[in-house]
Design brief:
This protein is an alpha+beta fold. Helix content is 29%, strand content 22%. A three-stranded mixed beta sheet has the order 3-4-5. It has a two-stranded antiparallel ribbon with strand order 1-2.
């Protein structure tokens, strides 16, 4: 891996997203059916408006069972759970820039933007996976 390469060379570009007005049941299903368990970008229209971590989700549903009929899954929207603070880089950024942000340990994912539109996501796992190749 060349740290001067573009983040586009290692980012996940097929990103699962959710809208802020969707219910937690939709988010629950994403976490149940996808093979990742990290962050889900919140996209309204074509603009990133936030991000939801699994920890944020778990805090809100604390005490609820996994039964889809639980009230919290139907009465709570993603907007009430998401963080509007998004760490992002432009698609032209380097892997070194993304690694520098992730290496500080404050976040575990960086959204990659093409203008205001979501182009991909890079996580600490992506950096490590490509480092050991």
């Amino acid at each position: 891996m060349n740290l001067n390469d573009s983040v586009a060379t290692i980012m996940t570009s097929d990103v699962v997203t959710i809208a802020s007005d969707q219910k937690l049941l939709d988010l629950k299903r994403i976490y149940e059916n996808q093979r990742f368990h990290h962050h889900v970008p919140v996209v309204d229209g074509h603009k990133v408006s936030g991000i939801v971590s699994l920890i944020d989700f778990m805090r809100v549903v604390s005490g609820a069972s996994l039964d889809d009929d639980e009230t919290v899954y139907h009465d709570t929207t993603v907007a009430k759970v998401m963080s509007p603070r998004v760490v992002s880089l432009p698609k032209t950024a380097t892997i070194a820039e993304a690694a520098g942000i992730l290496g500080r340990g404050e976040v575990r994912s960086v959204l990659i933007l093409d203008g205001e539109k979501l182009a991909g996501i890079i996580t600490t796992a992506d950096i490590i996976r490509n480092l050991v190749k």
